[in-house]
TrEMBL record:
InterPro entries in the cross-refs: LRR_dom_sf, NLRP_HD2, NLRP_innate_immun_reg
Source organism of the structure: Scyliorhinus torazame
GO CC field: cytoplasm
UniProt keyword Repeat present: yes
Name used for this protein in its record: NACHT LRR and PYD domain-containing protein
UniProt lineage: Eukaryota, Metazoa, Chordata, Craniata, Vertebrata
Predominant localisation class: other
Length: 182
């Protein structure tokens, strides 16, 4: 048998995510994703983002030409898991981890590129609070994507987020949708 090793962690996590879509019996992938999400140290975040991204038909199609059809059942379960996480995390922004978790779920939503799912889960959000949480330019791009899909943002709180120029540039196109901005 042939064994491949990938010393770079990002490649390992991508291959692990890809394996979830190519395994004939994915088992309870929702349980696996939830267990990975519970780990508070962020060690599975890249894996979870890859899994969410691979649920996107635009991302899966080119890979399927080489690897074969992804299991539709797995894709549906991943989409359901992302929906559950976004809906469960959306209003929980009291603590730092309470702010980091919704931001991570916004990343999953962004990676899934599922506009219908995004509008269903965040379309009616009125308050987004990330005060005192450092936001990277990538976080700002994800937040911009989410705000762009919201119908009504009454309050956006980014006090103490240390947003740099690049992050502000990524947020700028959607800030007009916010009635109150801090």
């Amino acid at each position: 048998s042939v064994v491949y090793t990938f010393p770079h962690l990002t490649i390992q996590e991508f291959v692990a995510a890809l394996a979830q879509f190519l395994t004939p019996d994915p088992g309870d992938i929702g349980k696996l994703l939830s267990e990975a999400h519970i780990k508070g140290d962020g060690r599975f975040e890249i894996f979870l983002r890859f899994v969410a991204g691979l649920s996107s038909p635009q991302a899966a199609r080119p890979l399927e030409t080489f690897l074969g059809q992804f299991l539709h059942q797995t894709t549906c379960r991943v989409i359901d898991w992302v929906k559950e996480k976004v809906e469960g995390q959306i209003g929980n922004t009291e603590s730092e981890s309470g702010k980091r978790n919704p931001l991570n779920t916004f990343h999953y939503l962004f990676e899934s590129q599922n506009k219908a799912l995004a509008q269903k889960t965040v379309g009616s959000v009125e308050i987004i609070t990330f005060s005192e949480l450092r936001l990277t330019p990538i976080d700002c791009a994800v937040l911009s994507h989410v705000i762009g899909l919201c119908d009504t943002i009454k309050h956006l709180d980014l006090v103490g987020c240390y947003i740099q120029c690049e992050g502000l540039q990524r947020l700028e196109p959607v800030l007009h949708k916010c009635k109150e901005l801090r």
